[in-house]
């Protein structure tokens, strides 16, 4: 079985190696004095001897350069003692040359140079870039015959193994600073004791105050007065170590600790840490995906969590797989998306806190800077609940959350005394004088940096103690940052480093099964050995996520392993992962991670599809902010897809559909960004075939729904009806008529409205309606059509047809048992009775609507119900209470931006003001409504607004000519719309005027 390094040859890699250059002294002169054939045989023999010695010491003869050679140690096979092996090989080469028999016709003398440093090399090994080989060549040229010169970088790594003498400093070509020339001598016979292993669980240093604060908070929690604490600080500052130390201090006391790990690139996965916790809780992930209530309830009960059936239902309705077919339809503001989100968070909080009264609970959220929006809301809810429960919530984050429900503890760098204590604990004795201060100056108090520096120096232990010794060791080792230190420690793991590199491409957390798949051709035993090495070195640790899974101990270590790969090699590994994910029926990684893997692999079309899948899943769970994260990635990937790619148009339309849904949900239907999105989508969609248009009908709907006014919306409705008239799909045609009747009523086009209702309801199918009512307007289409026709029939003065339609509307809505449809029917009935001036009916229907809206948390419907009830109360009985209720409902509706009946509501507002004795304000309100209605296209109630204007002018004793003008205008508008009922009302008022 091949070794890991032999099995995998990347395009290139960054790695620390030791270069050795040897050269024959005076080879030209020797050639001139010798026979060419003899010279050739002698040189060949020398190269063969040199190659044997180099190979014996673990090196590799990279190139024969005529009279010399270029060798590398630590490449292609990694070696922890590459520098030591190179120096030993160089001394042996010199000894072999010095022992050349006197009878040899061509005795050779060698010059050798050795240097260590970071290089980048290609897979084939024919391209190696770095200072080490250049410096080794320059040193070789400076060496005396049969001698070796070694660079500082190599000396610092090997001076505990060899004696060195400093010959001088020399300015070498290409190097700005003078270079020290060191000559090695034979290996010392005594060696230092091996370095002690890393003590990953050593006590934390310098955090006594923070530990005391956590302990105090825990003691308060035990008394039933918990809280939430945020540990804030930069990466490597010790947030997780602090929590770990605190948890260890709790020891065997009775409590439950739950850790929730937020993940990078999972910001688009709503509640992903909580869902991961549930997956560990249940026996099979299918329990959550399939919505198995019984199995889920049993798993909760087995863990000591006895929760209500409603909580189980709520969580499973969130975790269960859903069809993406309706995710691209707009959810209107009066749907329960926000309520569903809050209900899920409440249920999740209940599951996490229900045991607390019996068992004190510690809830820890790690890396909150990568948390999704719903997780942040969950943490804040837990923080509030903890105030009256034995619960302590701890969150670790690199960034501050200004509005978080948490007490913040900001972690700064360790004090100098703590750094000295940390360094001493690592060395196991008093470290060399000045080392602790040097480390403090380098790390600026960052614990992880200080720890890695101390371990770095411990493995090298320079003989000198001057500041320049420590600094030189870092510079020569290519260490200028914490990332470099972590890379150096990875290199110390030998062949296991390759496994860490592959794992880093998967992510911070990885499964052994996926890692083994990537390491194709490497035995499981070899992989297991590498894993054990990485565990023992503190590079990785076992993950609690699932059996056979591991994670890098620190995200910075994962980043160091990842950055050590060249981009071309990273892409190759990403491609292998992406190919696996694409070929799987159900990707084994979250869609958001799959999208990133494909993007890094350069598979832009696949990345866009996975990003769309992630966004759809979030939209279906009312997690719009999370969906937006995935859509941003999707947009970048779609832009990268070739214009000639056959799927580019489909991907772009899918992107537009979801972008429109999210923009409308987050910013409202009047959002300029939503309008721009749907306009772009329509420009693309109308160029496509009828089949494609039908498939992307939600684009038509969104384009219509987000129109800036009724005038534009009516124009779009006619286009929509026309484009869909010939399609075969009956539901699509029905919904096109749905748009038509909704807009044409407001535009005062009652004949077109009733025609759309008749044609649309002929296509109505109850089963299809169940699937579609939640997305096309949030209500049943038949309910909507009957309600709209009831209003149109009233204005056309067909009173029997109107009463019949509203009766059917209410009955059908009740039969659906769908909250959105029932409040929609009640709203139609309320508006109808309001037009008729039947105050008691308006009040009774309004209270019924309010009760239903409150049960289902339908904010816009609550606002409307209060507004109409308040209006009815004010007009019939209690002016003070009625005004307060009306104004409260009106204000809430204006805040929600859902005033789709502005004309009637302004009419009501003016009546309220008139009733309160404010006719001038009432008249101004009416005239504003007239102007808005004329400009926007909401014309169905214009006649009645002019009628009301005439009444108010009479109250204000305006000129009779102005009153007559308003009534005449009302009659003209009503007759133009065939609204006979409105025309007759205005005519009666006009007839009642005194003769001029």
UniProtKB/TrEMBL annotation:
GO annotations of cellular component type: cytoplasm
InterPro entries: A/G_cyclase, AAA_16, Nucleotide_cyclase, P-loop_NTPase, TPR-like_helical_dom_sf
GO BP: any one term: intracellular signal transduction
Keyword terms, alphabetized: ATP-binding, Nucleotide-binding
Gene Ontology terms, MF aspect: adenylate cyclase activity; ATP binding
Organism the protein comes from: Rhizobium pisi
Protein name: Adenylate/guanylate cyclase domain-containing protein
Domain Guanylate cyclase: residue ranges: 18-140
Pfam families: AAA_16, Guanylate_cyc
């Amino acid at each position: 079985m091949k070794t890991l390094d032999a099995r995998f040859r990347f395009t290139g890699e960054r790695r620390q190696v030791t270069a050795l250059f040897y050269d024959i002294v005076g080879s030209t002169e020797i050639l001139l004095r010798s026979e060419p054939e003899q010279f050739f045989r002698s040189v060949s023999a020398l190269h063969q001897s040199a190659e044997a010695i180099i190979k014996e010491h673990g090196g590799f003869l990279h190139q024969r350069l005529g009279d010399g050679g270029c060798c590398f140690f630590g490449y292609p096979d990694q070696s922890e003692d590459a520098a030591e092996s190179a120096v030993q090989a160089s001394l042996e080469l010199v000894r072999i040359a010095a022992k050349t028999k006197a009878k040899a016709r061509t005795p050779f003398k060698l010059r050798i140079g050795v240097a260590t440093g970071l290089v980048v090399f290609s897979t084939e090994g024919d391209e190696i870039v770095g200072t080490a080989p250049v410096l080794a060549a320059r040193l070789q040229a400076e060496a005396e015959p049969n001698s070796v010169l070694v660079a500082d970088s190599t000396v610092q790594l090997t001076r505990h193994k060899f004696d060195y003498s400093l010959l001088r400093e020399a300015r070498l070509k290409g190097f700005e600073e003078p270079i020290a020339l060191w000559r090695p001598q034979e290996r010392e016979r005594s060696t230092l004791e091996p370095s002690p292993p890393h003590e990953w669980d050593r006590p934390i240093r310098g955090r006594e105050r923070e530990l005391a604060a956590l302990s105090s908070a825990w003691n308060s929690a035990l008394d039933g007065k918990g809280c939430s604490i945020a540990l804030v600080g930069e990466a490597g500052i010790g947030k997780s170590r602090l929590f770990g130390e605190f948890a260890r201090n709790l020891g065997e006391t009775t409590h439950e600790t739950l850790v929730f790990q937020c993940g990078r690139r999972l910001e688009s996965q709503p509640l992903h840490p909580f869902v991961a916790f549930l997956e560990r809780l249940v026996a099979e992930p299918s329990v959550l995906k399939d919505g198995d209530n019984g199995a889920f309830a049993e798993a909760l009960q087995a863990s000591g969590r006895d929760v209500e059936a409603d909580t189980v239902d709520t969580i499973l309705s969130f975790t269960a797989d859903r069809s993406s077919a309706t995710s691209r339809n707009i959810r209107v503001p009066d749907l329960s998306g926000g309520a569903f989100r809050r209900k899920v968070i409440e249920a999740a909080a209940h599951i996490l806190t229900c045991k607390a009264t019996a068992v004190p609970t510690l809830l820890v959220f790690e890396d909150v800077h990568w948390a999704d929006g719903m997780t942040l809301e969950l943490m804040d809810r837990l923080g509030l609940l903890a105030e009256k429960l034995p619960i302590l919530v701890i969150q670790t984050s690199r960034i501050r959350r200004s509005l978080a429900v948490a007490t913040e503890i900001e972690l700064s760098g360790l004090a100098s005394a703590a750094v000295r204590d940390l360094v001493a604990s690592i060395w196991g004795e008093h470290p060399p004088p000045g080392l602790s201060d040097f480390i403090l100056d380098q790390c600026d108090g960052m614990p992880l940096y200080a720890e890695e520096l101390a371990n770095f120096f411990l493995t090298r232990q320079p003989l000198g103690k001057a500041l320049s010794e420590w600094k030189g060791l870092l510079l020569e080792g290519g260490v200028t940052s914490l990332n470099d230190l972590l890379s150096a420690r990875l290199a110390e793991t030998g062949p296991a480093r390759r496994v860490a590199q592959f794992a880093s491409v998967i992510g911070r957390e990885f499964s052994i099964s996926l890692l083994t798949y990537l390491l194709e051709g490497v035995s499981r035993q070899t992989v297991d050995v590498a894993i054990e090495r990485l565990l023992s070195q503190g590079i990785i640790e076992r993950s609690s996520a699932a059996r056979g899974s591991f994670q890098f101990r620190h995200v910075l270590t994962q980043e160091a392993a990842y950055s050590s790969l060249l981009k071309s090699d990273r892409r190759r590994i990403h491609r292998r992962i992406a190919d696996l994910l694409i070929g799987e029926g159900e990707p084994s990684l979250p869609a958001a991670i799959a999208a990133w893997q494909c993007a890094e692999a350069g598979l832009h079309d696949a990345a866009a599809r996975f990003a769309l899948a992630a966004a759809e899943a979030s939209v279906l769970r009312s997690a719009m902010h999370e969906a937006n994260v995935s859509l941003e990635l999707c947009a970048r990937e779609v832009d990268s897809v070739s214009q000639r790619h056959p799927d580019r148009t489909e991907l772009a339309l899918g992107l537009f559909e979801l972008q429109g849904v999210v923009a409308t949900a987050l910013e409202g239907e009047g959002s300029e960004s939503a309008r721009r999105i749907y306009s772009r989508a329509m420009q693309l969609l109308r160029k496509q075939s009828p089949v494609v248009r039908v498939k992307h009908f939600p684009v038509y709907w969104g384009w219509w729904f987000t129109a800036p006014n009724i005038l534009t919306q009516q124009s779009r409705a006619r286009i929509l009806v026309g484009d869909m008239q010939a399609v075969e799909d009956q539901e699509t045609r029905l919904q096109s008529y749905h748009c038509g009747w909704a807009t044409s009523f407001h535009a005062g086009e009652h004949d077109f409205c009733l025609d759309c209702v008749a044609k649309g309801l002929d296509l109505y199918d109850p089963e299809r309606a169940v699937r579609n009512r939640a997305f096309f307007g949030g209500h049943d289409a038949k309910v909507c059509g009957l309600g709209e026709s009831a209003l149109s029939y009233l204005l056309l003065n067909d009173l029997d047809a109107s009463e019949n339609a509203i009766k059917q509307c209410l009955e059908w809505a009740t039969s659906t048992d769908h909250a959105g449809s029932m409040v929609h029917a009640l709203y139609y009935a309320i508006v109808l009775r309001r037009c008729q001036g039947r105050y008691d009916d308006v009040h009774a229907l309004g209270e019924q609507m309010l009760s239903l809206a409150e049960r289902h948390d339908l904010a816009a419907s609550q606002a409307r119900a209060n507004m109409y009830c308040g209006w009815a109360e004010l007009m019939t009985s209690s002016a003070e209470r009625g005004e307060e209720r009306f104004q409260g409902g009106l204000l809430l509706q204006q805040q929600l931006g859902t005033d789709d009946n502005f004309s009637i509501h302004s009419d009501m507002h003016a009546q309220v003001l008139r009733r309160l004795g404010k006719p001038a304000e009432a008249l101004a309100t009416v005239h504003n409504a007239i102007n808005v209605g004329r400009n926007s296209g909401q014309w169905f109630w214009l006649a009645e607004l002019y009628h009301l204007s005439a009444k108010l002018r009479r109250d204000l004793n305006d000129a009779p000519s102005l009153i007559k003008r308003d009534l005449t205008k009302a009659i003209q508008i009503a007759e133009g719309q065939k609204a006979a009922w409105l025309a007759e009302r205005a005519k009666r008022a006009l007839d009642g005027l005194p003769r001029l």
